[in-house]
C-alpha cells in the first residue's frame, strides 16, 4: 500500500499555477485519547510537510494533533521549469516518507 | 410494588448521578482553553494588530463528524516578491490545543491557499490568520456547529 499519494499535472505551461493534492497514510494519533482501560494513547503524528521544486522549498506545513487522520494537503505552485518535485512528510517515532514526481514545463 | 418513599429515593439518585459526573470536569476548562487560544494568538502576531478581510476561510456551517472537517483558506494577494503572504495559521477556540495548522509560503506558491481536513472538538469559532510580507496580519473566522465531537471516540485497544 502506498504510504503517500500525490496528484499533480504531468505537464504545464511556463508560469502556470498548478494544483497539487497530497495524501499521506497516517493515523495522526492525537495523544488525548484513552484506551478502554483509561491509559493515554501516546501521540503519534506527522509534524511537518515540505514540498521542494528542483531543490527550492515552495510550501511548508506544520501539522498539529488537530489534523485529521490521513492528512490531505492541497495547495498550488507556479510551474517554472521542468524537473522534479519532492514531497516529504516527517513525524513522530521516526516517520519519514518522501515522494518524488516529475513535471514537464513548456 | 414500589412505594412512594422508594420512588422518591430512586428519582433523587438518578438526578444526582449526572451532577456528580459533571463535577469531575475541570471547572476552569473553558477559561483555560480561552487563555491557550490567546497565548497562541500572541505567539503568532506578538503585539501587531490583526485586521479582518483579505482572508477567506471556508468550513461547512454544520458538521456531522468532527473527526474530518474539510477546511480551506484562500488569501487575496498578488504573490509577488514585493507583496506576498508569508504564513497562514489556523486556530480554534475549544480544541484541547488551539493550533491546527501553520503554512509557510513564498511567491513560488502562486496563490496563497490551503485545503485540508481537520478535527474539531466542539461547536466553536475557527480563525485563520495570514501574515503578509509587509508584516501586517489579516484574519477571518467561521462559526461551526459540531454534532459529533472529534474527541469523544475512544481507542479500542
- Whole-angstrom Rg of chain A: 16 Å
Write down the Rg of chain B: 22 Å
CATH topology of chain A: Immunoglobulin-like
- Which band does the percent of strand residues of chain A land in? over 45%
Number of helices of chain A: 0
What is the total domain count of chain B? 1
CATH-wise, what's the superfamily of chain A?
Immunoglobulins
Broad shape of chain B? elongated
Strand count, sense and closure of the main sheet of chain B? 6 strands, mixed
Q: What does it look like?
A:
The complex is a heterodimer of chains A (106) and B (157). Chain A has 106 residues and is mainly beta. Chain A has one domain: Sandwich (Immunoglobulin-like). Chain A contains no helices and 8 strands. In chain A, the strands form 2 sheets. In chain A, strands 2-8-7-4-5 form a 5-stranded mixed beta sheet, with no helix packed on it. Chain A has a 3-stranded antiparallel beta sheet with strand order 1-3-6, with no helix packed on it. In chain A, β4 (46-53) and β5 form a beta hairpin. Chain A starts with a strand and ends with a strand. The mean pLDDT of chain A is 91. Chain B has 157 residues and is of the alpha+beta class. Chain B has one domain: Sandwich (Immunoglobulin-like). In chain B, a hairpin with a 4-residue loop joins β8 and β9 (137-148). The radius of gyration of chain B is 22 Å and the shape is elongated. Residues 19-23 of chain B have low confidence and may be disordered. The A-B interface holds A 17-18, 30, 32-36, 41, 53, 56-69, 71-78, 80 and B 67-69, 92, 95-97, 99-111, 113-120, 150-151, 153-157.
Quick structural gist:
With 106 residues, chain A is an all-beta fold. Chain A has no helices and eight strands. Helices cover 0% and strands 53% of the residues of chain A.
Amino acid at each position: 500500500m502506498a504510504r503517500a499519494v500525490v496528484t499533480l499535472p504531468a505537464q504545464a505551461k511556463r508560469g502556470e499555477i498548478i494544483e497539487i493534492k497530497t495524501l499521506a497514510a497516517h493515523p495522526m494519533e492525537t495523544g488525548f485519547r484513552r484506551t478502554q482501560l483509561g491509559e493515554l494513547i501516546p501521540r503519534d503524528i506527522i509534524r511537518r510537510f515540505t514540498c521542494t521544486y528542483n531543490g527550492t522549498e515552495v510550501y511548508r506545513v506544520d501539522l498539529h494533533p488537530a489534523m485529521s487522520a490521513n492528512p490531505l494537503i492541497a495547495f498550488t505552485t507556479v510551474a517554472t521549469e521542468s524537473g522534479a518535485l519532492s514531497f516529504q512528510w516527517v513525524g513522530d517515532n521516526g516517520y519519514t516518507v518522501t515522494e518524488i514526481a516529475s513535471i514537464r514545463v513548456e | 410494588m414500589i412505594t412512594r418513599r422508594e420512588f422518591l429515593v430512586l428519582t433523587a439518585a438518578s438526578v444526582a448521578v449526572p451532577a456528580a459526573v459533571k463535577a469531575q470536569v475541570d471547572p476552569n476548562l473553558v477559561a483555560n482553553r480561552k487563555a491557550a487560544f490567546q497565548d497562541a494568538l500572541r505567539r503568532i502576531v506578538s503585539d501587531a494588530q490583526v485586521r479582518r478581510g483579505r482572508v477567506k476561510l471556508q468550513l461547512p456551517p454544520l458538521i456531522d463528524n468532527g473527526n474530518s472537517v474539510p477546511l480551506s483558506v484562500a488569501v487575496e494577494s498578488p504573490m509577488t516578491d514585493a507583496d506576498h503572504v508569508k504564513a497562514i495559521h489556523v486556530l480554534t477556540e475549544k480544541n484541547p490545543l488551539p493550533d491546527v495548522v501553520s503554512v509557510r509560503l513564498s511567491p513560488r506558491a502562486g496563490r496563497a491557499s490551503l485545503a485540508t481536513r481537520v478535527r474539531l472538538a466542539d461547536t466553536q469559532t475557527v480563525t485563520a490568520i495570514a501574515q503578509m510580507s509587509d508584516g501586517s496580519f489579516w484574519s477571518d473566522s467561521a462559526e461551526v456547529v459540531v454534532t459529533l465531537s472529534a474527541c469523544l471516540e475512544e481507542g479500542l485497544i
